[in-house]
């Protein structure tokens, strides 16, 4: 059974009176408990929300809550005995200042620093790496899996596993902010410069030219532009 990260009593993930004053060690111990319950050897915590946004609302700042690094870009990877954060050069100094001793900063794109999928392939062969599929890009997942499978030097590639039932960090975040429900407003024609009908017609024309039947639009800025809508959930 998983121990409560607040009081470490066995049983439910959280006790009746949870506190957000958890140490970095307690957060990692609690997450590893959930990983063991689900048969996972590692768990990925990307920065993005379900729309792939780099800048997210507070309820989607799971990576920030887990590791303490508040920059907009970065991916955390937690294993049974390691906790690593990959981020780019914009945030090297900030991450070094905000991460605790439990975490290792992986300076992305620096020499001799492997990309996260390469690190997983080398360090976790044959291991199950979990991720919430709602916040992980399908194209990236396919690229990783194909790359691992095509490597002739590895007889046992890692397994990227979509974890059902919600994000594991959400189960450990006692006072996670509510999902915002701010109203959506129409962007007036005098500001947009083109009506929604005209934009949709152009998209349909492009689909026909590409011999495609449909397009899935999931990025928030693309949805806002196409439908001439604006929101304020992300500040």
Folded structure, characterized:
The protein contains eight helices and eight strands; from the N terminus they run H-E-H-E-E-H-E-H-E-H-E-E-H-H-H-E. It is of the alpha/beta class and 235 residues long. The strands form two sheets. Strands 4-3-2-1-5-6 form a six-stranded mixed β-sheet, sandwiched between helices.
Q: How would you briefly describe this protein structure?
A:
The chain has 235 residues and is an alpha/beta fold.
Radius of gyration, whole Å: 20 Å
Q: Briefly note the structural class of the backbone.
A: alpha/beta
Principal-axis shape: globular
What is the CA-CA span between the terminal residues?
39 Å
**Beta-strand content bin:** 5-15%
Largest sheet: 6 strands, mixed
Mean pLDDT: 91
Helix content: 25-40%
In spatial order, strands of the major sheet run 4-3-2-1-5-6
String of helices and strands: HEHEEHEHEHEEHHHE
How many separate helices? 8
The unreliable regions are none
Question: How many beta-strand segments?
Answer: 8
Q: What is the oligomer described by this structure?
A: single chain
Q: What is the fold's blueprint, element by element?
A:
Elements: H1 24-37, E1 42-46, H2 62-67, E2 75-79, E3 83-87, H3 92-98, E4 104-107, H4 116-123, E5 128-131, H5 138-150, E6 159-162, E7 185-186, H6 189-192, H7 196-209, H8 220-227, E8 229-230
Parallel strand pairs: 1-5, 3-4, 5-6
Antiparallel strand pairs: 1-2, 2-3, 7-8
Features:
single chain; six-stranded mixed beta sheet; two-stranded antiparallel sheet; alpha/beta; globular; 31% helix; 235 residues; 8 strands
């Amino acid at each position: 059974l998983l121990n409560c990260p607040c009081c470490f009593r066995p049983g439910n993930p959280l006790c009746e009176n949870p506190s957000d004053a958890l140490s970095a060690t307690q957060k990692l111990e609690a997450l590893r408990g959930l990983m063991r319950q689900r048969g996972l050897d590692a768990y990925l915590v990307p920065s993005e929300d379900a729309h792939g946004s780099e800048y997210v609302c507070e309820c989607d700042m799971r990576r920030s809550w887990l590791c303490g690094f508040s920059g907009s870009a970065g991916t955390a990877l937690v294993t049974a005995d390691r906790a690593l954060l990959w981020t780019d050069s914009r945030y090297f100094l900030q991450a070094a200042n905000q991460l605790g001793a439990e975490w290792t900063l992986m300076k992305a794109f620096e020499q001799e620093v492997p990309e996260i999928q390469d690190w997983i392939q080398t360090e976790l062969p044959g291991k199950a790496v979990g991720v919430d599929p709602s916040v992980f890009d399908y194209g990236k997942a396919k690229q990783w899996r194909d790359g691992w499978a095509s490597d002739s030097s590895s007889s046992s590639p890692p397994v990227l596993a979509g974890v059902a039932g919600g994000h594991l960090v959400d189960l450990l975040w006692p006072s996670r902010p509510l999902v915002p429900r701010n109203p959506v407003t129409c962007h007036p024609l005098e500001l947009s410069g083109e009506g929604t009908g005209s934009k949709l017609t152009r998209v349909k024309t492009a689909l026909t030219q590409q011999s495609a039947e449909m397009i899935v639009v999931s990025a928030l800025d693309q949805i806002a532009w196409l439908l001439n809508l604006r929101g304020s959930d992300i500040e």
